Recover the amino acids of this structure.
C-alpha cells in the first residue's frame, strides 16, 4: 500500500510508542481499582498519583488542582457548567464572556446555559487574523459576570490568543478565566501562572496519547459544582473509576511533548513555513487564514477561491494525503465555518477552507509531495 | 487508475447501491463510494437514507470492497431545491414527486459534477434502469429489466450529457437475484430494507407528519365540497389530499366518494363519484425529451402517470413551450396535477413532463 501522508494532527495523533509502552501494564498487570485496599489497588493508585504529579509539574500547579476526564469536550463542559452553576447557586450572577473563535464544545455548552438556565453571554469579536483584543474582554465585563472562557489556540486557523493579558484583566476583576487549551497542548507553554488562567482543558489524543482521556486544571479556590456525581473520585469533582492506563498515557505523552517541545516546535515551524510559502507560490489566490506569526507551529490553514473543501479533501485523500477543512467535528458540513465568518472571510470563500496540521511523522518529503499534489488538485477542481 | 476508468457510486447503505458498487469493482473499474447527506433529521427509522445506521452500513460495504468512501453534506442544496419544491407544490394544490427533482438536480446534477471533478468518468447508482448507446452515438434510457422494480419513471428528466456519464449496473438484474448475489458476496447489507422514496419525510414516508413539522402554513382547514358546490365537511389542509384518494375524507355518503380536484383558490377539496374522477386526457408542462428534441407527433406511446401505476396506451402530441398533450385510450382515475407523466415506446423512455 502507498504511504499515507497524515496532515491532520489537529484532529488526532497516533499514540506514541513510548506512551503505549507505559500504559500497557495497566490493562493486565496492574488492573486494581485505585480506591481499593490491596496491592493491586495500590499499584493503580500510585500510578494515578504519579501521573497527577507529572502533569501538575508541567502546568506549574498543585497535583490536587488536576482533574482527569474522558476528553477535551468533557473538560470544557465541566469547567463551564461547573463554574457557572456554582456561581449562580451562590447568587453571583449568570453572565459569561466568551469569544467568536471557540470550539463547539464551548459554544454549545454556553448556548445551552443561556437557552435553558437563564444565563447570558457576551461574545467578543475577533479580527481578520482570528485574534481577540483583550480590551474587548474588559469592556464586556459586567457586575454579574461569573466566567470568562477564551480558547488558547484556535483549531481551525491556529491563531494563539493573548491569554496572559486577558488573564490579567480577569484577575484584576476577580473573575475566573477558563481556557480551552486542547489545540495548544503539546505545543505551547501550559504554565497556568504565566498564563494567568484559573481553569485549563486538555485532550490526550492531540499530543500522542490515546483518545478517551482528557484533563482539567481547576485553580484552588475556584468554586466548581461537580457535573458527574457518585463516588468521591477526583476529590469529589468528577465521579467515576479513574481510567488508569489512559491517565498514565496522558501524563507520559504530555511529559514527552513538553521535553521535545523546543526542538520539535522549531522543526515543525520550519516545515510549516515551507509549506505555506510553497502553497502561496503555486496558488497565488490561496489566502492564509489565521495569524501569520502568532499561530501554532504545526498549523497551516488556507481558503482557496473557486474550490469546494470536500471535493478537495476527497481528491487529496485519493492521492494519499489526509487533510481537513476545519475542525474534524465539522467535516462534511457544507456550511461555512463560523470562525472564518467571524474573521470577515466571505461565505463563498470560506467554503474552500483547507487545514494542514503537521506532526512528528512528517518530513520534508511529505511537504514536497503536498506541494506537488495540491496545486494540481486545485487546478482540476476549479476548472469545473 | 484502471483501464476501465473510474466511477463514483452513490451509496445509500441499501443492498442495491452496495451491489452496484460490488459489480463495478468486479468489472475492473476504480470505484469510489459517496453517500449524500440530504436531510438533517437523524431520528428516522432505520431504512431511511442518510441516517447514522445507513452511513455505517455503506461504510462497512466500502470497507469490504476496499474502496474509498466519503459522506458529502448536500443538506443545504437539498433543502433549497427539493424540499422547497416539495412544499411549494403542495401549497399550489398539486402533488409533488421530489425524487424526480432530486435525481435530475442533486444526484445527476451536483454529485455527477463532483464525480467528474474528482477525475471519475462515470457516476453509478443502484437504480433499476438501463442506458443504451445507439449506433448514432446518442443515449437512450430504458426500463430496468425487473419491471416490478423499474425506476425509469424517476429518471426520465436525464439528458444526453448525464446519460453519457451514468452507469446503472443493476439495469439487467432482478431484485431477487440482487439480494442473493449480495448474500453470496457476504455483503452485510444483503437483508437491509430497500431505500424508501420520499427519503426526508420520516418513518414510512409519512409526508403528512413532515408537512405538519416543516410547513405548518399548509395546514389551513377548509371546506370539502361536491362538484356542485355543496358543503360536505372540513379538510385539514390541501396538502393532506391527493386526486383519487378515497380514504380519510371523514364524510359519509351513500356512493363511493373520491377526491377529484384540489382548488387552492378556494382552499377547497372537491369530491365526487368514480365517474366524475375519470379523465382521458391531460396537458403536461416542463416536458423533457431524453433525445434532446420532441419526436414527430402525434405519436403512439404508452404513458405512466404515477411511479407505481401501469402503462396506459395513449397518443402524445408535442406542443410549443415545452408542453404536451396526452390522449389516453381510456379514462384514468388518478391523473394528478404535479405528478409526472412519463412517455414510453416499448422499453425506451422518450421523456416526460409534469401534469398541469
Amino acid at each position: 500500500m502507498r504511504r499515507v501522508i497524515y496532515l491532520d494532527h489537529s484532529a488526532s495523533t497516533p499514540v506514541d510508542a513510548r506512551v503505549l509502552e507505559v500504559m500497557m501494564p495497566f490493562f493486565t498487570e496492574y488492573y486494581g481499582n485505585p480506591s481499593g485496599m490491596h496491592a493491586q489497588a495500590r499499584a493503580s493508585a500510585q500510578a494515578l498519583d504519579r501521573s497527577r504529579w507529572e502533569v501538575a509539574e508541567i502546568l506549574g500547579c498543585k497535583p490536587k488542582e488536576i482533574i482527569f476526564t474522558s476528553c477535551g469536550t468533557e473538560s470544557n463542559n465541566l469547567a463551564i457548567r461547573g463554574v457557572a452553576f456554582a456561581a449562580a447557586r451562590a447568587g453571583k450572577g449568570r453572565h459569561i464572556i466568551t469569544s467568536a473563535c471557540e470550539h463547539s464544545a464551548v459554544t454549545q455548552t454556553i448556548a445551552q446555559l443561556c437557552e435553558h438556565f437563564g444565563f447570558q453571554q457576551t461574545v467578543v469579536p475577533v479580527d481578520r487574523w482570528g485574534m481577540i483584543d483583550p480590551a474587548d474582554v474588559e469592556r464586556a465585563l459586567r457586575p454579574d459576570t461569573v466566567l470568562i472562557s477564551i480558547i488558547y489556540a484556535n483549531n481551525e486557523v491556529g491563531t494563539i490568543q493573548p491569554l496572559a493579558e486577558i488573564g490579567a484583566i480577569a484577575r484584576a476583576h476577580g473573575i475566573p478565566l477558563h481556557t480551552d487549551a486542547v489545540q495548544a497542548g503539546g505545543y505551547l507553554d501550559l504554565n497556568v501562572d504565566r498564563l494567568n488562567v484559573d481553569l485549563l482543558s486538555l485532550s490526550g489524543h492531540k499530543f500522542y496519547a490515546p483518545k478517551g482521556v482528557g484533563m482539567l486544571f481547576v485553580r484552588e479556590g475556584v468554586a466548581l459544582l461537580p457535573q458527574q456525581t457518585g463516588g468521591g473520585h477526583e476529590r469529589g469533582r468528577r465521579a467515576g473509576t479513574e481510567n488508569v492506563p489512559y491517565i498514565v498515557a496522558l501524563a507520559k505523552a504530555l511529559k514527552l511533548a513538553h521535553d521535545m517541545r523546543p526542538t520539535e516546535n522549531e522543526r515543525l515551524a520550519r516545515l510549516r513555513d515551507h509549506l505555506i510559502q510553497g502553497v502561496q507560490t503555486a496558488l497565488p489566490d490561496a489566502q492564509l487564514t489565521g495569524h501569520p506569526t502568532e499561530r501554532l507551529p504545526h498549523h497551516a490553514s488556507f481558503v482557496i477561491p473557486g474550490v469546494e473543501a470536500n471535493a478537495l479533501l476527497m481528491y487529496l485523500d485519493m492521492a494519499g494525503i489526509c487533510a481537513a477543512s476545519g475542525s474534524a467535528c465539522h467535516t462534511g458540513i457544507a456550511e461555512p465555518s463560523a470562525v472564518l465568518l467571524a474573521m470577515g472571510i466571505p461565505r463563498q470563500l470560506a467554503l474552500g477552507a483547507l487545514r494542514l496540521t503537521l506532526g512528528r511523522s512528517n518530513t520534508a518529503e511529505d511537504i514536497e509531495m503536498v506541494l506537488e499534489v495540491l496545486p494540481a488538485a486545485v487546478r482540476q477542481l476549479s476548472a469545473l | 487508475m484502471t483501464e476501465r476508468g473510474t466511477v463514483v457510486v452513490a451509496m445509500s447503505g441499501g443492498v442495491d447501491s452496495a451491489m452496484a458498487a460490488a459489480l463495478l469493482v468486479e468489472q475492473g473499474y476504480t470505484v469510489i463510494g459517496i453517500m449524500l447527506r440530504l436531510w438533517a433529521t437523524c431520528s428516522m427509522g432505520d431504512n431511511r437514507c442518510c441516517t447514522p445506521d445507513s452511513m455505517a452500513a455503506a461504510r462497512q460495504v466500502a470497507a469490504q470492497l476496499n474502496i474509498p468512501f466519503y459522506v458529502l453534506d448536500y443538506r443545504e442544496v437539498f433543502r433549497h431545491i427539493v424540499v422547497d419544491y416539495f412544499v411549494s407544490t403542495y401549497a399550489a394544490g398539486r402533488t409533488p414527486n421530489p425524487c424526480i427533482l432530486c435525481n435530475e438536480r442533486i444526484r445527476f446534477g451536483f454529485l455527477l459534477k463532483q464525480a467528474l471533478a474528482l477525475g471519475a468518468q462515470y457516476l453509478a447508482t443502484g437504480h433499476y434502469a438501463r442506458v443504451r448507446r445507439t449506433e448514432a452515438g446518442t443515449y437512450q434510457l430504458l426500463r430496468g429489466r425487473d419491471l416490478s422494480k423499474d425506476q425509469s419513471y424517476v429518471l426520465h428528466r436525464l439528458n444526453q450529457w448525464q446519460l453519457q456519464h451514468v452507469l446503472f449496473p443493476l439495469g439487467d438484474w432482478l431484485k431477487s437475484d440482487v439480494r442473493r448475489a449480495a448474500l453470496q458476496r457476504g455483503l452485510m447489507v444483503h437483508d437491509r430494507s430497500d431505500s424508501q422514496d420520499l427519503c426526508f419525510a420520516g418513518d414510512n414516508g409519512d409526508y403528512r407528519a413532515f408537512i405538519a413539522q416543516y410547513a405548518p402554513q399548509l395546514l389551513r382547514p377548509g371546506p370539502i365540497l361536491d362538484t356542485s358546490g355543496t358543503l360536505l365537511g372540513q379538510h385539514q389542509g390541501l396538502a393532506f389530499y391527493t386526486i383519487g384518494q378515497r380514504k380519510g375524507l371523514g364524510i359519509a355518503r351513500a356512493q363511493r366518494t373520491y377526491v377529484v380536484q384540489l382548488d387552492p383558490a378556494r382552499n377547497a377539496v372537491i369530491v365526487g363519484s368514480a365517474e366524475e374522477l375519470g379523465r382521458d386526457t391531460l396537458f403536461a408542462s416542463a416536458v423533457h425529451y431524453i433525445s434532446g428534441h420532441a419526436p414527430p407527433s402525434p405519436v403512439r406511446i404508452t404513458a405512466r402517470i404515477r411511479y407505481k401505476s401501469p402503462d396506459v396506451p395513449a397518443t402524445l402530441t408535442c406542443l410549443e413551450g415545452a408542453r404536451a398533450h396526452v390522449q389516453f385510450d381510456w379514462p384514468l382515475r388518478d391523473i394528478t396535477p404535479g405528478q409526472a407523466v412519463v412517455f414510453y415506446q416499448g422499453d425506451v423512455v422518450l421523456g416526460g413532463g409534469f401534469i398541469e
Notes: The two ends of chain B are 48 Å apart (CA to CA). The first strand of chain B starts at residue 6 and ends at 10. Chain B touches chain A through 17 residues (CB under 8 Å).
